[in-house]
Amino acid sequence: MTNSSIGDPLVGHALEGRYEITSRLARGGMATVYRAVDRRLDRTVAVKIMHEGLGDDEAFVTNFDREARAAAHLSHPNIVSVFDQGNDFGRPFIVMELVEGSTLRRLVSREAPLTPLRALDLMDPVLSALAAAHDSGLIHRDVKPENVLISRRGQLKVADFGLARAVTSQSAAATQGLLIGTVSYLPPELVEHGYADTRSDVYSAGIMLFEMLTGRKPHTGDSPIQVAYAHVHKDVPKPSSWVDTDWRRSLDGIPPYLDALVGAATSRDPDRRPSDARAFLDCVRRARKALSSGVMHDPHLTLVLADPNAADDTEPVDIEYTPTRRAMLAVAGLGATASASTASASTGSSATASGSVGSGSAHAGARPGDLGGTVLSPPRPNGTSEGSSLRALEDDPGARDQDEHAEPIALPVDGVGAAGPDRPGDGTDSDRTGTEESDRTDWADSGAYEIARATRGRRARRALVAALLVLVVALGAVGTWWLVDGRYVAAPVVTTMTQPQASAAVKAAGLEFATTEEYSETVPVGAVIATVPGPGEDIARGATLTAVLSKGPERYAVPAVVGKPLDEARQALDANHLAVGTVTEHWSETVAQGTVVSAATQEGTSVKPGTPVDLVVSKGREPITVKNWYNRNSDDAIAALAAQGLKVVTTSRTSDQVAAGKVLGQTPSEGTLYRGDKVTVAISQGPEKVTVPDVKGKSVKDAEAAMAAAGFRTTTQPVEVNYLGLGFVARSSAEPGTQVAKGSTITLFLV
């Protein structure tokens, strides 16, 4: 039995007569986990028992029963199996597989930050478990490292699906207004609206991945409300910005596409996250595949993982041959070098046109490094690029075959059409000879005139587009300034101020003022402990700054527990945020068994929350074993019985078998009594005594009759001197009038 099990009343108890509790493993906010033995199947299991009070809520019990049954239907190697559920005297419980080992929390605490590849390896079984649950219509709602168990064989298993809610048309609103979850991993929508779906689990899993990569949680604060505020109002930073290892120099660095994946999974907008754990798992496996291949920079993969819900039904294609995606990269400033095979309209022969997207000249190509250090190789004759790291076709033969058999795409750039074999390839003014008319005639002969005219039209449109882009960029800059800086002010420093002082300072900064209260051991009552957002952090103009005011030290009065049964005393202490300390059992002649006799801390004393209160509990009346004192000295018997706390009553009577002064009998003769019970002791007076009659001068016959009537036996004997033989009694061996034991033999002397 562990130290934590000492004094736990459930240890040794058999839930519903089947699951015998052997020890306590852990205690949480809603339940306590015990090790137990299933008597029916003779196996060791884990039992999670909800805290007292939760079983009084019929709605909670109904939901608990339904959700435990749903969790029991989950069968997956990475999910802790749920065997049974029940309700033992108002205590709902779940019976689960017992996983001997450790938790992901312990691993992260000891070893994080982990290498990206190892972090993704650990995420795979976690997301596989969540994906199985999501496929079955369940969400977990409390994904965190503490709920990921690691067996001694290294297998990861996700626990606590018994607290999941079935995803229905109403989805998963917070139960009874309570947020079920851990604040460090709570998704914003659960904080704001009390609503959770599969994407909420994705968010929590994304925070787990961030913590494994960096060794830290993305949002911290002095109080839970500050952490929750950060989840709602702040983006999760890039993991790479929190570690020292540079992905450009080490394979242990965090590549951009992994930053993008974490950013998508932890987006404050649920619509931007992977739709469920299955989609998140697919993204993790794509990132892990790239990492395993040594690819540290893949802009296409970065774009895909940054927006996992965008249509991307195939493996990444070569970005050179995708005009739309190449344009996106150009607008984003990535400047990819473009290459394409162009078919000649007149001869059917081919040539290569090269240029830079968004450039004003056919030779204003992108420099090496415009794609983050990735240089695209010239196209091979079949239209693919050999050296590009922007595609993963080499990892997917089916996708590669599809790309190699695709039709080549003609990309005219800055007036360059499909040049025939007899025409200059660059189309610049320095290459032109003759007049414009001759140029037109020559181009017309080859069909190139129409292409040139279309090119001039495109130039005009490009000029208009360029002007519009400048306008958009300018407006964007203004909008960006307003969104990023202009509409925000720094939260004023009001900590340690009184409420009136803080209110004045906040309103002077153009903000609304609201308060909430928390206990503090150090900050005086009414003073500000902290603010949300914190001092100096950005807050929108006119928004509300919440100040956390001190309620002073948190203290609770010790309730009246003396005279109450132990269970009621425990409930009273729990209600006052206190705990039962050491429970000592004593015999009591006045207090019923199981009732509190005394408490170490006096009733009404103010103590800190969680303070243990030692209790003395009655074992009931102390049993006394009574021995049989028959034929033993009565004085010794009376003294011993009185010393045991028994009430001794004595009687006496004659006895032919027991000598006088000894115990002739007792009631009860032996057994178990209690202090104050009565014991009757009978003391022997010895044999009964009678008076010897006077028979002197009587005949032998009359004398014997008188003695017999008195209870004596007689014998006769002649006198020693002067015997005459007359047959009369001269005297007896016992003097007449004396007391002699009844039945004694008296000798009659005759003359």
From TrEMBL:
InterPro entries the UniProt entry points to: Kinase-like_dom_sf (IPR011009), PASTA_dom (IPR005543), Prot_kinase_dom (IPR000719), Ser/Thr_kinase_AS (IPR008271)
Region (Disordered): 342-442
Domain of life of the source: Bacteria
EC number: 2.7.11.1
PASTA domain location: 485-551, 552-619, 620-685, 686-751
Bias (Low complexity): 342-366
Membrane-spanning intervals of the chain: 463-484
GO MF terms held by the record: ATP binding; protein serine/threonine kinase activity
PANTHER family reported in the protein's UniProt record: MITOGEN-ACTIVATED PROTEIN KINASE KINASE KINASE 20-RELATED, SERINE_THREONINE-PROTEIN KINASE YBDM-RELATED
Protein name stated in the entry: non-specific serine/threonine protein kinase
